[in-house]
Amino acid sequence: MKEIKKVVLAYSGGLDTSVIAKWLEDTYECEVVTFTADLGQGEEVEPARAKAEALGIKEIYIEDLREEFVRDFVFPMFRANTVYEGEYLLGTSIARPLISKRLIEIANETGADAISHGATGKGNDQVRFELGAYALKPGVQVIAPWREWDLNSREKLLAYCDEHDIQVEKKKGKSPYSMDANLLHISYEGGVLEDPWAEAEEEMWRWSVSPENAPDEALYLELTYKNGDIVAIDGQEMTPATVLTYLNKVGGENGVGRLDIVENRYVGMKSRGCYETPGGTIMLKAHRAIESITLDREVAHLKDELMPKYAKLIYNGYWWSPEREMLQKMIDESQECVNGVVRLKLYKGNVSVVGRQSDDSLFDENIATFEDDEGAYDQADAEGFIKLNALRLRIAANKGRNLG
Amino acid sequence: MKEIKKVVLAYSGGLDTSVIAKWLEDTYECEVVTFTADLGQGEEVEPARAKAEALGIKEIYIEDLREEFVRDFVFPMFRANTVYEGEYLLGTSIARPLISKRLIEIANETGADAISHGATGKGNDQVRFELGAYALKPGVQVIAPWREWDLNSREKLLAYCDEHDIQVEKKKGKSPYSMDANLLHISYEGGVLEDPWAEAEEEMWRWSVSPENAPDEALYLELTYKNGDIVAIDGQEMTPATVLTYLNKVGGENGVGRLDIVENRYVGMKSRGCYETPGGTIMLKAHRAIESITLDREVAHLKDELMPKYAKLIYNGYWWSPEREMLQKMIDESQECVNGVVRLKLYKGNVSVVGRQSDDSLFDENIATFEDDEGAYDQADAEGFIKLNALRLRIAANKGRNLG
Amino acid sequence: MKEIKKVVLAYSGGLDTSVIAKWLEDTYECEVVTFTADLGQGEEVEPARAKAEALGIKEIYIEDLREEFVRDFVFPMFRANTVYEGEYLLGTSIARPLISKRLIEIANETGADAISHGATGKGNDQVRFELGAYALKPGVQVIAPWREWDLNSREKLLAYCDEHDIQVEKKKGKSPYSMDANLLHISYEGGVLEDPWAEAEEEMWRWSVSPENAPDEALYLELTYKNGDIVAIDGQEMTPATVLTYLNKVGGENGVGRLDIVENRYVGMKSRGCYETPGGTIMLKAHRAIESITLDREVAHLKDELMPKYAKLIYNGYWWSPEREMLQKMIDESQECVNGVVRLKLYKGNVSVVGRQSDDSLFDENIATFEDDEGAYDQADAEGFIKLNALRLRIAANKGRNLG
Amino acid sequence: MKEIKKVVLAYSGGLDTSVIAKWLEDTYECEVVTFTADLGQGEEVEPARAKAEALGIKEIYIEDLREEFVRDFVFPMFRANTVYEGEYLLGTSIARPLISKRLIEIANETGADAISHGATGKGNDQVRFELGAYALKPGVQVIAPWREWDLNSREKLLAYCDEHDIQVEKKKGKSPYSMDANLLHISYEGGVLEDPWAEAEEEMWRWSVSPENAPDEALYLELTYKNGDIVAIDGQEMTPATVLTYLNKVGGENGVGRLDIVENRYVGMKSRGCYETPGGTIMLKAHRAIESITLDREVAHLKDELMPKYAKLIYNGYWWSPEREMLQKMIDESQECVNGVVRLKLYKGNVSVVGRQSDDSLFDENIATFEDDEGAYDQADAEGFIKLNALRLRIAANKGRNLG
């Protein structure tokens, strides 16, 4: 068994991580530092302090990281129009690298030689936490209790609590789903969702009304972009976290952002998940719209071709890697001119772009027009363009190559 | 000037191509063969016969190509989850190669040495028509009147008709938009759309009701896939064209499939277009869902990484090219196991996947479960997996490389 | 400990795998089947029979797999011009999937429930053997003694032999290098090579003379290709293994094919290796040459863009995977017209292409000529081609975007 | 005909561009400014002044651009290990953007509204010159005489000289090849090379001895890299142009850098070219070697995957484009740690890497060693790594999917 002196634990204050705190002390005879972050999950983090104190923790970190989360992680990711497997907006994936970073920084501040987390051995989150931790502090020890202990059921955890005098709220009607939330999304896995044919129940969803229950009146929004990020809504300047909080609110109220998919985990299995990402759904649509008038065609296509790889890096836990940073440099470089305003309509689950404008627009009405363009574009040029593009095809056909 | 003996014209029966037919005869002193196809544009094609006869055309081809269009062009494209620039379902682009193919086949049958079309010198369609024609018959002559003549306004065309006794319907209330339709979509360009900030008017849309006007009751659909193509809806077997016709109907009735974008044309300019693609929007969503349980992860990711290139080939007019065929071979190969049923819900513009099942499913409930998996997956394996994936990052950090 | 009844061991007859055979019996109390293959490593395989018998092995497989190796593994890989990290011709990597396949087939024939190999826990080969085995027989057990036992030095292995009465040749002057050989290459790692600044000693190399010691006279060769594979040399038809044997001979005699690199292993570390690949070096150069006149430009470019991914799959051990097979399908499809003859010159380490010809050539002298082409190509077309390709750049510049 | 007031001509002082200078004045009745650059082509540029004066030119620019050429164009390109179609080092392609840039800058300085060049309508160079010019000055007029005039043979050009009193050296024994040279390479096209089966004659080559005629003694070189560029040779600091000049000298003396290929031109045809690139051949090999110990694996692989696209951009003339600049940003970012020394051996055409070292090396001898690593690497980790990487393959096999 590893020799550990002090371990920083990603601590939620819930049953699992409370048991872990105690179990770490008992098993490794080490000091435990708890770290609890507000990433916009929608629950108070301050109560975690009393719980940690009750467990006898001496060093307790409780932090509001919402602005950093959106500014340094969510926004950079949306600059790439990032979607995993065509659908998933990476709400869980993008929060992990920030937690890894703070765990390691706190380890450095407190002289801890290990970190620990409550992710299971089947999921992606263990990978994301640990790859980040190793990348930022290569000699750190990682303790993943779910891979080590035999407390593999809720009953055993509760028994452990009884045995060790750990106070936990015995919530009635505990959710049948495994959930994760932050300012970008809330996710649901497990329970009836383990059958991919079963439709999710309406009661499961927490952040959005169903399209059926959304208002009968559409909501129009104007989002102002600067260097690819939203800086104002309806003319009102906002910080990154405020932008996302606001978009979650209006998105959720209008039934926007529900998703039900089967995804491929990095650890090798398929998994069914449901997600609510109201603000993110709006941001993806709007960002594509502002790019559509401000980005050069080939830059846009290069971004599109590289996006799946970039999304995969984030999904798999490689935010803290030189290859992600290299791609990010290129993506950020492309956003210099991504400025302007997008006008959107939200209505019962739909997000529609209805207008876009920019001082940096590359849309040229004089050239694009169906009306007389007064010589801005010489239609005769098209013949040579087509002829030379066709040349290799013609040569091949002349040599007897057949298509179709 | 080229010497032309006989030219096959893609003929709609409308004002423009009627003028072209006459203009070709006059200008090139050649015979004109007309070719009119039903691709599902929603207008009768048979009336084109009388119009062509009135113009003195001797060889008149009128054909229903709807099944071939969907079976050999639309379906193969959807196997790749093809989307251009993140949004456009390529409704216009995918119809052009079929028209090129028939133009050339008819040229071969009738001994024509040229083909002609009514596409302008600013758009993508001229490129698509002509690349296809050159690839299939490298010595063919192409006449693109819009790039040659000076009849560059509706007034001049009408004057030409008067002068040359061409009968055309003088439609009242002619649409202010440039439109194109086939079984996959209807498109709108020009008019007020030339201002990308202007919202499209509700009256413009023809194939779908607005989400606001869609029924208050959701519609559930079950699509059956075989080798990546839909072969039955709600248990009812259907031909390809019938599938798409049906999905257009129910999609349009439920407000599905409207799109408003600015896209990058191959000829170098940005252009604003609005599209209605009810059936295609449903198919894209459903195809991703059936693939999500039947495709291997890395196969899916490879498809996602190559898709933008494949989409660009189709958009730019390279359907008839060896590189498109090479990609198609790979895509088709991947679809062997893409079999099963997807359950969808349509509601006021939303298409939601609510279930998917397949005898070829790779979703393994025993492994994915949050419950006890009885040893199907050894959580301890994750440690080694993470450690070795982290190794290069740890070595770099140990050598002093910094991230972030 | 796993319960094993019978294990198939990849057996070379050398010290390591002889110890393994015994150790498997002792440790797992299981039957051992040995499998020894001639892949062109240049050593007799038949003597392995007596050695296996001396160890008490009942089921002994000894096979000449050279033709299958070159036909089904080496040749398909060369169709893609496959090179890992710009230099490495994958000589070791490409042999592993064939061994995995035979191990599993023999396991199926003999009713074995496990396989075993002598690869260490630090290298790529363990990954390649095992990924292949799991992909072909998902329930198979794998025993990798080097990851389990404590016999981690030559001394301990020899002691084990003494203790267990295993007869091994105590070679004098054992090579200080870890070597691997098959018909495609011989590799050297370890020893002084562990210092990447140290030059390899001339005595290390076994398959080739140094360029300094090669003949003063150049050798000319004509290779005939059919569907991307060499089918004849200097007009003489040959089987795949004969082709490679011959090219190794003449390549090695002319100092061709030495390589000294630092490569990135899949398990996360950098490693220095030296390789001799005389025939492969010739084949890569020649295959590019025959493709240069027979492949369409865009097909060639698509192959080039996908090659690094394909190479990585093979290097990492994913030959037996659906994504490799999907890429292979595309690559093979592209080779239909890769027919013709390449003329090469070998001289003191250099392989130079001096001529190429094909009935399927797309090289069109009439168009390419600097002389009068009699109208085959209209130079005026270039203006439109350039103008439209420049359009997006001009619009951007007009809008004030700056380059450089 | 375009109205031109003043045109800047890329002027070599040779027959073709002397005729062009006169022809431009006569045809467009415009002023002509000549621009002659020393890019290392190996001919004096100063004599061009007298020739231009003899033609009556008033504004004459003669410049030594060698340092700028290597520093800002050649070196950045080599940071990407750039090779077009697996072989071509882009010697001609990379010089064009610098000429375009200076033509436009001179046009701006002299108030010229047009530029002109002597490239033909069949080649890539017209595209490269003009795309660059349009990108840098979107309203510029371009005159490409070879696409306009009928002086399409040497005889007609000489007759034009006689007629217009243009003094040209009537070189005896004019080369039968079309050649282009700069500090990176010299190229040969045309003549007997138009038959791709014909071997190039030994007399054609100008910059290098044949391997046969190279010294019998090998030459060792040590190249010092900083941020991916060579800054010193054998410990001697050098400027970029001096580095390349030196490497050309020693490379050429040792028979390094000849290439004979058929390449695919952007304008659609295949073309046979021979190239001598002594210094570039050395630089490519050495740069890969220094990267092999200093670059992260995934960064290196990402560079390899993007390289073909980057090479194609340069080959096709898109140096001055936002997508090339975006890729360059990423490439340059990756070079921060590409520092150290590479030791090379040149011998009769061979360039062999024999050592590499760096303070930024990621090669870790403790982990890579075949000897006891004292726990730096835990071999047991490999099992989990393999097991999880195999999981998707095992699930598929269990579900009955077959490979092979």
Automatic annotation (TrEMBL), chains A, B, C, D:
Binding locations of L-citrulline: 88, 93, 124, 128, 178, 187, 263, 275
Pathways per UniProt: Amino-acid biosynthesis; L-arginine biosynthesis; L-arginine from L-ornithine and carbamoyl phosphate: step 2/3
Entry coiled-coil feature ranges: none
Catalyzed reactions: L-citrulline + L-aspartate + ATP = 2-(N(omega)-L-arginino)succinate + AMP + diphosphate + H(+)
Domain Arginosuccinate synthase C-terminal: 177-395
Keywords: Amino-acid biosynthesis, Arginine biosynthesis, ATP-binding, Cytoplasm, Ligase, Nucleotide-binding
UniProt binding sites for L-aspartate: 120, 124-125
Gene3D superfamilies: Argininosuccinate synthetase, chain A, domain 2, HUPs, Single helix bin
Keyword hit for Hydrolase: no
Chain ranges of the Arginosuccinate synthase-like N-terminal domain: 6-166
InterPro entries assigned to the protein according to its UniProt record, in alphabetical order: Arginosuc_syn_C, Arginosuc_syn_N, Arginosuc_synth, Arginosuc_synth_CS, Arginosuc_synth_type_1_subfam, AS_cat/multimer_dom_body, Rossmann-like_a/b/a_fold
Residues reported in the UniProt entry to bind ATP: 10-18, 37, 118
A Pfam cross-reference name: Arginosuc_synth
EC number, UniProt record: 6.3.4.5
Location in or out of the cell: Cytoplasm
GO-annotated cellular components: cytoplasm
Chief location of this protein within or outside the cell: cytoplasm
Family, per entry: Belongs to the argininosuccinate synthase family. Type 1 subfamily.
Quaternary structure and interacting proteins, as annotated: Homotetramer.
Entry protein name: Argininosuccinate synthase
Origin species: Endozoicomonas numazuensis
Lineage: Bacteria, Pseudomonadati, Pseudomonadota, Gammaproteobacteria, Oceanospirillales
Gene: argG
